[in-house]
Amino acid sequence: MSESQTRIDLRGTAGRIGASIETVVEGKADAVRLALTVMLAEGHLLIEDVPGVGKTLLAKALARSLDATVRRIQFTPDLLPGDVTGVSVFDQETRTFEFRPGAVFANIVLGDEINRASPKTQSALLECMEERQVTVDGHTYELAAPFMVIATQNPIEMEGTYPLPEAQRDRFMARIEMGYPDPAAELQMLAVHGSGSPLVDIEPVANTTTIAALVAEVRQVFVSPQVAAYAVDLATATRQDTRLRLGASPRATLHLVRAAKAAAALDGRDYVLPDDLQALVGPVFAHRLLLTPDASLSGTTASGVVATILRNIPIPTSEGRKRGA
Known about the structure:
By secondary structure, this protein is α/β, with parallel strands linked by helices. The chain is built from 14 helices and 13 strands. The chain has helices spanning about 5-20, 30-40, 55-65, 80-85, 120, 125-130, 165-170, 185-195, 210-220, 225-240, 250-265, 275-285, 295, 300-310, and strands at about 45-50, 65, 70-75, 85-90, 95-100, 110, 135, 140, 150-155, 175, 205, 245, 290. The chain has a five-stranded parallel beta sheet with strand order 3-6-9-1-10. Strand 7 and strand 8 form a beta hairpin. The longest helix has 20 residues, at about 5-20. The chain is globular and about 70 Å long. The two termini are about 25 Å apart.
């Protein structure tokens, strides 16, 4: 298969998945594209917004569009780490311990209202999300590939919630804020959702083998030294900004480049442009940044800091569009 045919297949498959999601999530093309970008970049997605704007619906629609194993975890204060990762149970007949896999053993794990669980339970996902494995009682169990965590949370309500640990937030490649639909999309929603849930009509349009092949293609997208240096400059600027007490980690830089490679592939390119980094640096960096108390009191936001940094960091003049450029 030629390189151009591969790109067409990637864009075509992603287009079918996106179209399937948009049959139930109206007027959110940007959010759908970002979700696809994170999936192809082997990342995890945090969907954060007020109640009722379609956070869980987007996660479910993506899961149903794939012929893959899906498990949902409803995070609550009484959820235990073993409910997520699994536990070892003593078998009376064999006189041995048998491992019972938890909900995390699936291709797509939907974590609904993740900030309602205790930090101890949230931390049960740390190894899963970073290393794609689970260690219980000294034994390590590999997770299925592809593996993606899609978590939702409400940033407004504070009663009965716990802030996500910084290590947990850093493992999410990107954060989406759904926002309210425009009037036309909301009217369409009333027409589509008024008589029942359209989720039941979604049929899988891709399987795990196809997704794994697309992920492998995304890995081959070229990143020039100039573009890589631009990504490092953006991350370094967050670490030096006096308005922040915690800047972007090296993992954040890696996630930014991986997401940019997926975005380039979705656009039919086999190379990353600075534009790809600029479009994704907000969703990839902002949720990881911690403001100083003074910056918070002055009304500064993490997204605003990222926007300022984008304006101040020089854009590379040569993208290195071809290998060896």
